[in-house]
Amino acid sequence: MTCYDRRDLGLLLLRLGTGGVLAAHGTQKLFGWFGGHGLEGTGQFMESVGYAPGKASATAAGLAETGGGALLALGLATPAAGAAAAGAMAGAAAVHAPNGFFAQAGGYEYAATLGLAAVGLAITGPGRLSLDHALGHIFNRGWMVPAALAATAAGTAAVVGARTCRVRAKREGKQEALFEEVEEP
């Protein structure tokens, strides 16, 4: 195998793994598959963490994950697919950020990893073992990478910023404890 062949196989595996996980996550939100809560349950959760309206937020996140993940796996419209998936993961990371980095403590590790993989694929491209390559890269032009990433970054910043404002407003007037209370044995 030449290096070029190895690179294409590596990109295919990365696309299938990252895209498959993202698509599965999205179908949990949209359809309740794989133990998910569907639009109603996910919408209620989204509302509880500051994304409003909840059902619309769940739909947007589910579509970005399902669509972006499926397109990444196929290697089709790779810049837009990677950007959409990364935007959804940035929104998820914002929810988990107060818990620190590691997923075992509820942190943003998992969302960040998926988002970075999606951005990496958007920038690198899908390789020769892809629908983009088979179609002559009509949905994978060089100018599409910065355009997709910039549009997604602007939209994500607006959505996450609005969520941050809602979360702060909800906490206003509530005094947080200065010290943790420790129960005596």
Automatic annotation (TrEMBL):
Q: Member of which family?
A: Belongs to the DoxX family.
- What residue ranges are annotated as transmembrane? 70-95, 107-123, 143-162
Q: Where in the cell is it found?
A: Cell membrane
Its keywords, alphabetically, are: Cell membrane, Membrane, Transmembrane, Transmembrane helix
How does this protein lie in the membrane? Multi-pass membrane protein
Protein known as: Putative oxidoreductase
Q: Does the keyword Transmembrane apply?
A: yes
Give me the Gene Ontology terms describing cellular component: plasma membrane
The protein's matches in InterPro entries, at most eight in alphabetical order, are given as: DoxX (IPR032808), DoxX-like_oxidoreductase (IPR051907)
